[in-house]
Give the backbone structure.
Amino acid sequence: MKTCAYHPFLPDYRDENLEPALRKKVRIHLRSCRSCRALLEETDAVVRVLRSAPKPDPGRAWMRRYHRELDAGLRSVAAGEKPVLSVFAKVRLFLASLRPALLAAGAAALLIVGILAGRFILPRSSGVSGNPQVLLFSARSPSESQWTDFLTESEIWMLAVVNYEPEEDPGSAYLALNRETAENLLRRSLILEKKGIEPDREGLIRFVQGMQMILLETTNSDEDAKRLVSDSRQSILEMRLLDRSRLLRRIVRESGSSGV
Amino acid sequence: MNMDDGQLVRKAKTGDNEAFGILVKKYRDPIVHLAFQMTGNWNDAGDLAQETFIKAFQRLSQFREDSKFSTWIYRITVNLSMDHHRRRKRMREVPLEVEPAGQKGWLDRLLNTADSNADRLETEETNRSIRRALNRLSGNQRTAVVLKYFHEKSSLEIAHIMGCSETSVRTHIFRALRNLRKALPQSA
């Protein structure tokens, strides 16, 4: 399509946002310019799609928390205190100071920790229902550190999946995805679902559902590990499970074990 | 208390925090939506919105009132979002966006089975493809399109918010729509 000097005016012409004299000029030009007529039609189609999109909605719980945090932040500024940065803002500022090479090193370190966690740190399971450590965890109110441990383990596992490059390191993600680790996380997530977190129950349930689905598939499937990793990665990214887990970790830390 | 933005700003400038609070209540939702549309992440959007209002509060005395308060506060958000975008680019963070290629994952299908609803799925798919298409635009093109079509701002207002001429805004929008046309199969 040839570029015409009138092209940039067409979106405003379509929305009737041009001043009358200019609008008249464009209207007359359109009669003789095929390129502009075609572009006007295309503009109309794109704008219709854009305007058909519903307003993004993070959910009522998120909005309430956002209003609360905004209020608190402004109050502290008005009182002359230094505004309290959220954990996300602090992490962002910290990460901003790091170079990509350091980030890559960090990801590699997390991967190694994930593999070690899967092999040595996590309690060994001995069948579907018989792990005493897990039963103990469910019998009393989980402590802040237990919640944090679970969420951290999940994040390490998810990061390993997200960062998995089969060509570079064919064995690593499979190691992180071993059956034992998956079963352990699955059982813990089932317990967490019963407990729930009051400040963000909806978020927790969705998070746990996502984890369960991924882990169930991982534990039950004998399918090709590469495809499984790819599916899990897609799910983690689509459901923003890493974000959810980090958010929950913040809630746990802020509310302490008593608020959970 | 039924006051317009100008009156509220003048009161806030004299130290009336209640007046500033009314302005915050009025703009907190559009601002967080704008921040989300610019960053694609609610947590970042919440942080940016908070930073916007804190900046506005601290710099209110410097606001000369030669533009509307809404223009001024949108401008702060846009500038912060652009800085954020540049930082992210430098950091090359792990992308948390939906991967552009590929079909819906098995998990999504599973979770949607319970309350499967064709319209809802279609809307979600449209939203996702719009988000992906917007992410491919340059910062200026995305800002102009978001302000025009999601916040219903005129080209002149967008020019004030972005600190450029109306002609530049029209060019950004024209180019953005041309790029979106290629990226949005629904518009074909």
Summary: Residues 7-52 of chain A form one domain. The longest helix of chain A spans residues 100-121. Confidence is low (pLDDT under 50) at residues 120-141, 169-177, 196-201 of chain A.
